[in-house]
Amino acid sequence: MSNKHVPLKARKVSFAWEDTPLHWVPGDPFTTHTINVLHLLLPAGERWFVHVYKQVLPSIRDERLRADVIGFIGQEAMHSQAHDEVLPHLRDQGLDPTPYTAQVDWLFEMLLGDRTLPPGRPRRWWLLERVALIAAIEHYTAFLGDWVLNAEALDRRGADPTMLDLLRWHGAEEVEHRSVAFDLFQHLDGDYARRVRTWATAFAALVFLWQRGTRFFMANDPTLVDGRATFRDFHRRGRQGLLPSTGAITRSIPGYLSRSYHPSQECSTEQAVAYLAGSPAAVAASAAEKSQESAA
Questions:
Q1: At residue 159, what are phi and psi to the nearest 5 degrees?
Q2: CA 81, CA 39: separation in Å to the nearest integer?
Q3: C-alpha dihedral over 45, 47, 51, 52, to 10 degrees?
Q4: pTM across the whole model
Q5: Which end of the chain is more exposed for a tag (fewer CB within 10 A), N or C?
Q6: In Å, how far from its chain's centre is CA 266?
Q7: How far is the C-alpha of 44 from the C-alpha of 242, rounded, in Å?
Q8: Closest CA to 186 of 261, 100, 119, 251
């Protein structure tokens, strides 16, 4: 497995959603809406990543890491935009996510946003806490990216190709830059107690927000009568390969908590780069960029 370092760049992708059905996994609103929670969480979450990292840039002393963080910022900004553009399509199909996204915006902008703290140790403590939180969250975005790149069950079920390309383009970039957040945390602090504490916070928050988002979608889907979401449904889809399995999620925990952990030990950069080389959206973005360069 090749996991060599690759320079990070933002790919200015775009997607057309007019032909994507509400239940883009045919006949399976639960799987559709469980994955759709990404569109609710990621726009605000990744804008928050970018905001925090822009504050951190002056403190980075390693030039390669600084270049990686700048590339990471560009990719995350593009991820936020791409998922945000799915939301009007959901509204057009009668599923308005605004009540939920307003709560997510409050979480990232108010609860996890900047605080009026005295300069020095208190202000740096809050910055390091957020850097560590991002590292923990990125452990799971890389986990999800690796999963969706290998989720052949979605192809066999006839999942919408445009949605799959969005998810796999995003997932491949998460695998591609999976070490950046952890390396930045190690560079600035690396305190093991902080890593464990912020992992627990991030994991609990992700589980809470994800199940809440899935229930929101199922309850408000205009095509469903008494739509519900249960852990049993999630576990069953995991066994079918349509969602991450509960076993795989559980096994992801001790890895991050190991003192010898590094993200390069997991996933495949080679697989991610190979997908990005063939992704319809990424290929179109590359062609458009080359065309603009030629015109200039």
A1: -60, 150
A2: 10
A3: 20
A4: 0.95
A5: C
A6: 16
A7: 26
A8: 261
**Is 291 a residue whose pLDDT tops 90?**
no
Instruction: Classify each residue of 229-248 as buried b or exposed e, where b means 16 or more C-beta atoms within 10 Å of its C-beta.
Output: beeebbeebbeebbbbbeee
The answer to whether 194 and 128 are in contact (CB under 8 A) is yes
Tens-digit pLDDT profile for residues 70-88: 999 999 999 999 999 999 9
96 alpha-carbon distance from chain centroid: 21
10 Å Cβ neighbour count for 173? 28
Q: Which pLDDT does position 3 carry in this prediction?
A: 66
Write the CB contacts of 90 (distance below 8 Å, at least 6 apart in sequence).
22, 36, 39, 96, 97
From residue 173, how far is each of 52, 124, 240, 253 by CA, in Å?
19, 29, 25, 22
Intra-chain end-to-end CA distance of the chain, in Å: 39
Closest CA to 142 of 45, 251, 264, 285: 264
Q: How confident is the model at residue 1 (pLDDT cuts 50, 70, 90)?
A: very low
Largest CA distance in the chain: 56
Q: What is the DSSP string of the chain?
A: -----------------TT--SSSSTT-HHHHHHHHHHHHHHHHHHHHHHHHHHHHGGG---HHHHHHHHHHHHHHHHHHHHHHTTHHHHHHTT---HHHHHHHHHIIIIISS-----TTHHHHHHHHHHHHHHHHHHHHHHHHHHHHHT-HHHHHTT--HHHHHHHHHHHHHHHHTTTHHHHHHHHHT--HHHHHHHHHHHHHHHHHHHHHHHHHHHHH-TT-SS----HHHHHHHHHHTSS--HHHHHHHHHHHHSTT--GGGSS-HHHHHHHHHH-HHHHHHHHHHHHHHHH-
